[in-house]
Amino acid sequence: MDLSPYESRIERPIRRKIPDLVSNGRLKHLIFSEQLSAELMGELFATADAVHDLSSDEDGARFLQDLLRHKKAMLYFTQTSTRTFLSFVAACQTLGISYADIRDPKISSEYKGESPLDSVRMFSSYFDVIVMRDRTPRFAEACAYMMNDDRDIPIVNGGSGADEHPTQALLDMYTIERAFTFRSPTDSSKRTWYEELRQDHPTLRRGIPGKRFAFVGDIGRGRTVRSLAILLAHHPDVQLHFVAPDVDGLRLSTELKDRLTRAGAEVFEHTRIDDVLADADLVYMTRVQHEHDAADGPEVDWSDFQLTAERARRMRAYAPILHPFPRNTEIPFEVDADPRATYFEQARNGMWVRAALLAHLFGVERRILDQHRAVFGQYHDYNEGVLRAR
Ligand code: CP
Predict the structure, then answer these.
(1) pLDDT per residue over 322-336, tens digit each?
(2) Which end of the chain has fewer surrounding CB within 10 Å, N or C?
(3) In a domain, 56, yes or no
(4) Domain check: are 179 and 201 in the same one?
(5) Rounded Cα gap, residues 332 and 274, in angstroms
(6) Taking CA 257 as the corner, what is the angle to CA 177 and CA 209, rounded to the nearest 5 degrees?
(7) Whether residues 311 and 357 fall in one domain
C-alpha cells in the first residue's frame, strides 16, 4: 500500500508523533498503546465501569443510548476480526451511535482500484469516527495524519499488521488491574481472599508494580503482546517473561526488548512454558499465527507452549490466565473451568472499555460519570484500586 504522502511523519520516533494524536490534552486519535497514560487509563476505566453499571437496568441503558444518537461510526475492518469488530458494534449500540461497516474490500470500490487512503478520506465525509483494522502496518497511523490535514475525524486503530493493537492493550490493562485488586464475591468483613492469599504469599501486594508477567507463544508476530507489554513496562519493578521458540521472527524482537528495558522493565526470555508457570503472577497465552508461516520456515514443536490443565495446576492460586483470542490448541477447553481462566471476561471487558473510549473521543464521559454518581452514589477510581468484584 502506498503511504508515501505520510512517510516522513511515519518515520519519526514515537515520542514526536504523539503530539499529532492529541487535542487539548485529550485523545484525538488512538493509534499507539503508548498514548495511554496511567491517568488517561484511570479515567477510561472509571467510565467503563460506569457504562457497565448503567447498562444493567433499563433507565441506565436508555440514558446511555441517548448520549450520542447524533453520531455515526464507520467500522472499516478489512482484516478478519470477531471480538474487536463486534465489541465496537456493541459499544456503538450501547451509546446510541449508528454505524456502518466494510469488512470485505471486494464489495467496495477498492475492487475497482480505489486506494484505501481514498476510501478512508471518503468515510470521513459521512461519519464522525473511523475504527479500522488492516494488515498493513502504519496504515491507521497514516490515516490519522490524513485526518489532521483534511478532516477533523478521529481514527481508532483496531489492529494494524504486526504493529499495534492499542484497544486490546486497553482492555487487557482493565482486566489485569481488576484481577490484582484480589477482591472476591465471597469476601467478608472478617476475612478477605487477599488476606488468605497473603498467608501463602506474604510478599503479595495489590496492583501491577512488582508483578511477574509471562507471555507465551508466538511472541514475535503478536501485536497484542507488543501493545500490552509496552504499557506494563512503565510500572515499577515489573518483570516481563517471554516464552517462545528460539527462532527468528517468533522470539521477542531486539527492538521490542530494548524498548521495554528502556521503559524500566526487567526482561527475560525462555523456550519452555514449564520454566515460568510456578512463579508467574499472570500468564498471557497467545495463538500461533500459522497464516504468516513461510513455506520454507522451520518446523516448530508448539507443545512446549501449551497451557494444559496439568500445567495450570503448577500455577499460583491467584494467577489469572489471559488470552486475547482467538485461540487454537494452546489452551485446551478443559482449562476453561479453572477459576483463574479470565479470557472470556477479558473479551467481554472489551465492550466496556471501547464504549468508554468512544465516550472520551466524543467528550461525554463526564456526563456518564455524573449519571453514575447520581444513580449509584459513588465513583470507581481504578487508579486508586477501588474496585468491586462482580
Ligand atoms: N483479540 C482480538 O483482536 O480478537 P479478534 O481478532 O477476533 O478481533
Answers:
(1) 999 999 999 999 999
(2) C
(3) yes
(4) yes
(5) 16
(6) 25
(7) no
In a domain, 389, yes or no: no
**Are residue 192 and residue 152 in the same domain, yes or no?**
no
| Tens digits of residue pLDDT in 39-66 | 999 999 999 999 999 999 999 999 999 9
d(CA 313, CA 316): 8
CATH number at residue 122: 3.40.50.1370
For the record, the C-alpha cell of 80 comes out as 478478519
CA of 22 to the centre of ligand 1 (A): 26
User: Is residue 197 domain-shared with residue 252, that is, in the same domain?
Assistant: yes
> Ligand 1 center to residue 225 CA distance, Å?
13
Q: Rounded to an integer, what distance in angstroms lies between the CA atom of residue 188 and that of residue 42?
A: 27
219 and 339 housed in the same domain = yes
Question: Does residue 164 have a pLDDT over 50?
Answer: yes
Give 117's DSSP letter.
H
pLDDT, tens digit, for every residue of 356-367? 999 999 999 999
Based on the structure, what is the number of domains in the chain? 2
Neighbours of 175 (CB within 10 A): 22
Distance in Å, CA 143 to ligand 1 centroid: 21
Runs of H (alpha helix) within the chain = 7-10, 14-17, 38-54, 58-67, 83-95, 116-126, 139-150, 166-179, 193-200, 223-232, 254-263, 309-312, 343-361, 365-376
Nearest residue (CA) to ligand 1, atom 6: 81
Q: What is the mean pLDDT of residues 293-303?
A: 83
Domain extent, residue 132, equals 4-165+347-372
Q: How many residues does the chain have?
A: 390
Contact 151, 143 (CB under 8 A): no
- Is the residue at 31 inside a domain? yes
Cα distance between residue 134 and residue 15, in whole Å: 23
With a Cβ cut-off of 6 Å, ligand 1 is lined by 81-85, 159, 168, 324-326
pTM: 0.94
Residue 383 lies in a domain: no
**Average pLDDT, stretch 340-364?**
98
pLDDT for position 380: 54
Query: Can you say whether residue 319 is alpha, beta or left, with left for phi > 0 and alpha for psi between -120 and 50 degrees?
Result: beta
